[in-house]
Each structure stands twice: as C-alpha cells, then as structure tokens.
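queue> pop job 88
queue> type: inverse folding (structure -> sequence)
queue> payload:
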C-alpha cells in the first residue's frame, strides 16, 4: 500500500492513473478537495478495488495521523500543496498552512508509522517539490543542479522551500528515508485552467484576450506530466534516501513562444476567423516574476536512467487535443459543477474508512 496526498490535483491524478495501470499495489489518496482538487479527475478509476480515497485536510493533524495509522503505507508520495504563484501573491497564508504545516503534519505521522513498523529500510517518503525554490536564472546562467542554492522569490516558492527543508531535517535528525524531487513546469491533461497553458487554451476558445505578463520573454522549462509521473516512479523505486533529484523536460521556451505555438495549433485544429494570434496581449508583469527556470537533468539521468520521452511540440499537441476533446470536464471545472459531483459522490465530511475493513 502506498499513500498519495493531493491525488485529486493535476499531477497527482495523472500519477494515480499511471500507478494503477502499471503496478499491482493498492493506493490510498488523501486529499482535502480544495478548489484545485477535482475528484472527477479520477472518475474512471473510482471503482478500482485497489483505489481508496480519504477526504482529509493536511492541516488536521489528528485526521492525517488516523489515515496513516489505518492504511500503514510502505511509502508516502506527497503532492498536496497550494500550487499557484498568483494566488500566493494575493493570499499567502493558505500556502504557509498547507505547504509548511501540512507537510510537518504528514512527516510527523509518517515518522510515527515508520517507527511502529520497526524502521524498515525500504520505507520511503517522497516529497514532490518545485524548481522555483532555486529562484531565478539569467538567460545565460547554467541550468539548476541539485546543488543550486535555495533563493525562493514568491510566497509559493518560499513555502515549498520551507517544506523541502523540513523533509531534509526529518532525514538527518530522525533517519526517516526521504526522497525529494524538484521539477519544472508541468503541462498536460487535467491541469486546472488557472495555469498558463490551459488558461490560454480556454481563453482562446472563448475568443478572449491572451494575457502575457510583461513582454513574454520569461522562460520556463516545460515537462510533460506523464514524463514527470514516470520519473517519480523511478525515484521511488531506485532513489537513494536523503537525495534530491531534479526533473525537467529539457524544453526551455519563452512564454510568448508557448502562447504563439498554442495559437498556431488551435488554428489548425479549430480554425477561427482572423486567427487566434490577434488575441495575444502583453499585460503588466507579475510582481517578483522570476525570469527563467531551467533544470539540469544529468543527475537523475546518470544515476537512475530516467530521460524525458515527450518533446514539447508533441506534448503541447496532445494537451490541446485533450482540452478540445474534454469540454464537459472543462465546463464542470469552470461552473463549479464538479463540486456538486463531489458532494454527490462522497458523503460530506467523510473520514477514515471503517477500521473493521481491511484496506
Ligand atoms: P494542484 O494545485 O493541481 O493540486 C493540489 C492538490 O492538493 C489538490 O487536489 C488539492 O485538493 C490538494 N490539497 C491542497 N491543499 C490541501 C490540504 N491542505 N490537504 C489536503 N489536500 C490538499 O497541484 P499540482 O499542479 O498537481 O502540483 C502537485 C505538486 O507538484 C505540488 O506540491 C506542487 O508544488 C508541485 N509542482 C507542481 C508543478 C506544476 O507545474 N504543476 C511544478 C513543480 C512542482
Ligand atoms: P504559471 O502557469 O502560473 O506557472 P509558474 O508561475 O509556476 O511558472 O505561469 C507560467 C509562466 O506564464 C510564468 O512565467 C507566468 C506566465 N503567465 C502569463 O504570462 N500569463 C498568465 O496569465 C499566467 C497565468 C502566467
């Protein structure tokens, strides 16, 4: 049994789907179903007997402890977080509560479980973090290695950096077998349409302006979500406790490049009179906007044999096609309909399963 947190979010739901398709081991998903958590992301696997769900908030230490004690996982994969930089600028408190205190609560419960299991060497706590903890690169700096100093610049990245430090400390102080991964910007199916790529697809389809911050020259290193999930499986299986692994797509692009590529693809797949490009509009920059992120993937490639498979053009095309083919999912997310779906599907305030059941 493995425990995944945040499995109803973008990356977590892609990971769970891949895990259940490839592995013969049950999984429990602990998620509070915030605005970013959408149980409909996993509608196709709800009836899989290897899948368990617990609606629990990481900020509730007792509830977290109860789930970990009940399922006795051999590994914990920690995806749950407040994850949107723009929201962290407007309302940072939730980021500190979930990303810092929530991670502490999970570490505390995992440590307790590990000790109760007799401190097995094979136990793993895999913390999914971000390259944003390293701060900003100039256009000519070398890409981030695992040794790059921490220089977080936004409330989001500062809270993730704090959580990375807690995870490190639980290894050095208590011996918990932890692994940390720091990945670049993910894209692909099931991403909440507040992030750049799905936001631009949705606005373009609605004929709305495509707001590019500043002059659009900021650079991100784009990682297709399935490549990321495969990397996490490799890290979980072969990673050395205490190590950090950087995961990137080797696909640096300026934001303007990304948005222009999207408009070109949309024009082929769903032509618009006058094209989509005319919708692009440069708007005032994000405060503290990091100029460039880029990941040096040599360590994970050399140590664990992982390489990204999906090139940016292919990944972007798959993503655009997915959003075009899944209009109901998008409409539900946008209308809040998926919250109703959740209420109908899970009893309100559900908690740990009946302890008499064997997970
Ligand atoms: P997301 O925002 O799509 O999903 C987050 C999930 O966590 C949701 O299901 C939400 O309900 C859950 N959650 C939030 N607060 C919670 C709480 N207090 N208790 C329990 N569950 C809670 O995020 P994502 O894009 O899937 O990112 C997953 C992880 O990967 C995060 O830790 C993020 O920092 C990291 N990451 C993401 C990216 C990216 O490009 N998306 C890049 C680098 C790192
Ligand atoms: P985002 O998807 O929010 O991810 P992050 O800030 O974690 O990298 O943004 C990706 C890039 O796109 C970032 O440089 C900010 C930029 N951006 C825009 O230009 N316009 C937008 O409306 C958004 C949401 C992002």
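queue> result:
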């Amino acid at each position: 049994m493995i425990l995944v947190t945040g499995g109803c979010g973008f990356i977590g739901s892609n990971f769970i789907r891949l895990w259940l398709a490839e592995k013969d081991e049950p999984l429990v998903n602990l998620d509070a179903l915030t605005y970013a958590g959408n149980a409909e992301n996993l509608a196709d696997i709800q009836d899989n007997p290897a899948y368990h769900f617990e609606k629990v908030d990481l900020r509730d230490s007792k509830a977290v402890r109860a789930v970990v004690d009940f399922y006795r996982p051999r590994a914990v994969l920690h995806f749950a977080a407040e994850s949107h930089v723009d929201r962290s600028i407007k309302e940072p408190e939730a980021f500190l509560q979930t990303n810092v205190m929530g991670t502490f609560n999970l570490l505390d419960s995992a440590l307790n479980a590990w000790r109760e299991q007799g401190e097995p060497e094979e136990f793993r706590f895999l913390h999914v973090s971000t390259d944003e903890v390293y701060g900003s690169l100039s256009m000519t700096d070398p890409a981030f290695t695992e040794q790059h100093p921490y220089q977080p610049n936004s409330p989001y990245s500062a809270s993730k950096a704090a959580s990375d430090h807690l995870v490190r400390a639980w290894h050095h102080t208590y011996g918990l077998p932890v692994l940390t991964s720091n990945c670049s910007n993910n894209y692909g199916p099931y991403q909440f349409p507040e992030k750049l790529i799905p936001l631009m697809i949705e606005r373009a389809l609605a004929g709305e302006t495509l707001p590019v911050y500043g002059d659009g020259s900021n650079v991100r290193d784009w990682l297709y979500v399935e490549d990321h999930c495969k990397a996490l499986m490799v890290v979980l299986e072969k990673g050395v406790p205490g190590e950090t692994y950087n995961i990137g797509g080797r696909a640096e692009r300026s934001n303007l490049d990304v948005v222009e590529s999207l408009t070109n693809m949309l024009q082929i797949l769903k032509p618009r009179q006058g094209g989509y490009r005319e919708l692009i509009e440069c708007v005032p920059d994000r405060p503290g906007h990091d100029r460039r992120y880029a990941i040096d993937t040599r360590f994970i490639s050399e140590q664990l044999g992982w390489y990204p498979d999906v090139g940016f053009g292919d990944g972007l095309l798959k993503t655009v096609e997915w959003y075009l083919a899944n209009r109901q999912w998008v409409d539900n997310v946008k209308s809040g309909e998926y919250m109703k779906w959740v209420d109908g599907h899970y009893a309100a305030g559900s908690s740990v399963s009946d302890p008499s059941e064997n997970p």
